[in-house]
């Protein structure tokens, strides 16, 4: 009997998986945006990963947090050509092409190189920038690592999906690659001796070296002519948008505006007061970033807990229902959610479902986190209900209580007492799990942590501050839950 139930659940999960795959395969072809469409909606949406100063990073402008940098200036030039407003959407670098494919954005300007592999999936503009490549190393190893030749057999950090990853593979085949999401992580790897160097563009290297006294840089001796260069990515068959971008790039090149844009970006990074501050004071001066991120994290957590519990109760009741079809479908759905990573679920809701319905990043994050929590809450509640002795139910029914009254007055109250510790652990875990929503550009605490890292060039201190904030929240919630648990025990 038990084996048949397992087979039924597995069949349900498999059927659900097939349905999801078929939905993705049969989704309508998303046509590339055209100049006319962009003009009609009055805005050009640019996707970028704002963790790469001076090209793109977050800064406070007139009291408002904005993405600024050289690439944003180039995006603004293209928007001006079209006579529309530029809208900048921030997300992780490795999510940008997915966002472009699902039409969440109209173009990608994020220091992206126009490789042959990428050209198979997207259209690129003409290159707008070719930069010298630099290795960033620890200053105490400068006497040993005097040239690129000395690094060829070392462990070298590169950003995932970046031009530097391709350069390292082709020009330094003996080097061992350590690919990470962003440059801040590469800096941390370097300082913690995980890598001997990391490879990046000269402007980025110089910016980090000028803000960290324990690192230095040296030339990678890579021929610029062999590099594809940095370009703007558009959806396939976006010829008119590419032509507009190329026209703007020609104007930028003819008037030598790149150096001007880099200098303007540097103004956001350099401030006399910041130079006089120590690392801790500098990072703490960005407390509004942490405060804003904390507010978003708590908002997502509170809403997700509410809907997670609500849906969890419904799922649990469906699981114990006598209707076999309802029971089987719910079981399959719950097991599918519990068997897939939350990060994938967030990306699926934002990019996958977003191909049919345009759901904002914050709402997508809340939906994914709520459903994920509901799957776990449902199993906790189901286990609590099943843990109540059957004799309690039989006694209540023998006293004349209806099935509904028995459940609400006898079974469920006892189940809540049994499951409260597990439910509390789920709530605490939920606070920490919301950190994943930053991958789609939701400005939660982790997103703001990365922003502070980019602006201050400090890797560890922002992490420490975020850890303390998370600890204070989870510890306070633990104490509150323990208080209610103690009251339940004395009832």
TrEMBL record:
Pfam families: BPD_transp_1 (PF00528), SBP_bac_3 (PF00497). CDD domains: TM_PBP2. The chain crosses the membrane at residues 286-318, 348-371, 459-478. GO terms for cellular component: ATP-binding cassette (ABC) transporter complex. Gene3D superfamilies: MetI-like, Periplasmic binding protein-like II. Keywords: Amino-acid transport, Cell membrane, Membrane, Transmembrane, Transmembrane helix, Transport. The keyword NAD does not apply. It is a multi-pass membrane protein. Its main location: membrane. InterPro entries: AA_ABC_transptr_permease_3TM (IPR010065), ArtM/GltK/GlnP/TcyL/YhdX-like (IPR043429), MetI-like (IPR000515), MetI-like_sf (IPR035906), Solute-binding_3/MltF_N (IPR001638). One of its GO terms (biological process) is amino acid transport. PROSITE patterns: ABC_TM1. SMART domains: PBPb. Belongs to the binding-protein-dependent transport system permease family. HisMQ subfamily. This is Amino acid ABC transporter permease.
